[in-house]
Amino acid sequence: MYFFTMWMDLAESTFDGDLEKLSEKGAVLRELVESSLTVKPIPCVFEINCRMLLHCSCSHNHRGDAHDRLLRILEWITEHLPGTHGLVYWYDDEPGRTPPEEFVDAYRVIVVAKGKIMHRFDPFLSPTMLNVEDRDPYL
To answer: Distances from the Cα of 108 to the Cαs of 5, 21, 50, in angstroms?
Structure first.
C-alpha cells in the first residue's frame, strides 16, 4: 500500500505571497495535479480567505510510478512557486522499495519551504507497529 497526504500554502515569493501571477500559476498547477495524480478531493488547488492552497490525498495498492509523479509536481511547485511551504506525509509498506538503512515500517515526510524539497523521517507515527497498530512487530 502506498499513500500520501499533502498540504501546501502556495506562494510566488517568500516576501509577498502573490506577485500578480498566483491565480494563473494555480490554474496550471491544478491541471498538472489532476492530470498526473489520482487525488481526492478534486479540485485540490483552491482559494480560501485570500490564500491559495493545495490539499489532497492519494492511495494505491502498489506504488508504481505514483511517487515519482508526486516528486515531479513538487519540483514544479518549487520552481514556479518558490514561496510555497507545506508537508507531504507518505507511506509505502512494500519491502524493497526503500533503501535498507531506512525504516520500512515508517512514515516519511517531504518538507517544501523556500524553494527547496527536503526529505525527513516522521517522529510522531513511526514506527507504525508501535505507534499506530496493535500487533506484535516480532511475529
So the answer is: 11, 32, 30
3-state helix, strand, coil in the chain (%, to 5): 25, 30, 45
Structure confidence by residue, pLDDT tens digits, 102-131: 556 789 999 999 999 999 999 898 888 777
Name the CATH code of domain 2-131 (choices 1.10.1740, 3.30.70, 1.10.287, 1.20.120): 3.30.70
Average pLDDT of the residues in 56-77: 94
Question: Cell 492511495, residue?
Answer: 59
Task: Give the predicted TM-score (pTM) of the model.
Answer: 0.86
**Helix, strand, or coil here: 10?**
strand
